[in-house]
C-alpha cells in the first residue's frame, strides 16, 4: 500500500506502470481501518481472525465490493 | 491475515515476545534471542518462527529464519518511518505506518514518500486523530490476493 500526494500523482504512478487502479482510500479511512485492524495485535492471546470477522471489519468501514471480498485465497 | 488456529501456547507466547521485542527495540528478536528467552535451542526457536510464518503471524526473509515483518512492523528500513515517544519504527507500507500508532495507542510523527514523485509526506497522529494534507493511499492488490506476494502487496 502506497501513499500519494494527490489523485494526479496516483494516476501518474498507475499510468507509468500500466497498472489498473485498485482501491483508493483517504488517510482518515486507513486510520480507521488501522485502529480496527491492529487494536488487538499486542494482545498476548491474539490468534488471528476468521473470514467472517474480517468481513465484519470491512463492512463496518464501508469497504465493500469485490476488492474487499475474501474469496478463496487465504489472506 | 492469520486465521484463528489451534496455535500451541508456546508458539503464541513466542509471537507475543516478537511483538514486545519490536515495540521495545524497533527490531525483531533473532532466533537466538528468542531461544534464550524461552530456554530452548535456537533450532527450536527457528522451527517456531517457521510455524508462525506458515500461519501468517509473522513473515520471514525468504529461505531464512530472520523475521522480515511482524505487521505493522518492518525489520527492514522503508520509506515509511514512524516516530513515537519511545522509538522510530519502520513500517511495511502506508497502511502499516498508521497501524503502528494505532496498535500502540500513542501519538506519532510519520514520514513517508509519495510513491510517484518521491516528495516527503509528513503526517501526525495526535489524540487519536491524524493530521494530513488530503493524501491518498492506494491498495493495488485485492484483499483475497494480499498474501500471494506480500512484499508487492
Q: What do these coordinates show?
A:
- The complex is a heterodimer of chains A (75) and B (153).
- Chain A has three helices and two strands; from the N terminus they run βαβαα.
- With 75 residues, chain A is mainly α.
- Chain A has a domain at 24-75.
- Chain B is an alpha+beta fold.
- Chain B folds into two domains: 9-70, Arc Repressor Mutant, subunit A (Orthogonal Bundle); 74-131, Super Roll (Bactericidal permeability-increasing protein, domain 1), CATH 3.15.10.
- Helix content of chain B is 32%, strand content 23%.
- In chain B, strands 1-2-3-5-4-6-7-8 form an eight-stranded antiparallel β-sheet, covered by helices on one side.
- In chain B, helix 2 crosses helix 3.
- Chains A and B meet through strand 1, helix 1, strand 2, helix 2 and helix 3 of A and helix 1, helix 4, strand 7 and strand 9 of B.
- Strand 2 (23-26) of chain A pairs antiparallel with strand 9 of chain B, so a sheet runs across the interface.
Main sheet properties of chain A = none
Tell me the strand percentage band of chain B.
15-25%
Q: Give me the strand/helix succession of chain B.
A: HHHEEEEEHEEEE
Q: What's the end-to-end separation of chain B, in Å?
A: 13 Å
Beta fraction of the residues of chain A?
5-15%
CATH topology of the largest domain in chain B: Arc Repressor Mutant, subunit A
- Rg of chain A computed from alpha carbons, rounded to a whole number of angstroms: 15 Å
| Class computed from helices, strands and strand pairing of chain A | mainly alpha
Helix content of chain B: 25-40%
The CATH H-level superfamily of the largest domain in chain B is Winged helix-like DNA-binding domain superfamily/Winged helix DNA-binding domain
Q: How many beta-strand runs of chain B? A: 9
Topology at a glance:
The complex is a heterodimer of chains A (75) and B (153).
Chain A: E1 2-4, H1 7-17, E2 23-26, H2 27-38, H3 51-60
Chain B: H1 9-25, H2 31-38, H3 42-54, E1 59-60, E2 67-70, E3 73-74, E4 81-83, E5 88-91, H4 94-104, E6 108-113, E7 120-126, E8 129-131, E9 136-139
Antiparallel strand pairs in B: 1-2, 2-3, 3-5, 4-5, 4-6, 6-7, 7-8
Helix pairs in contact in B: 2-3
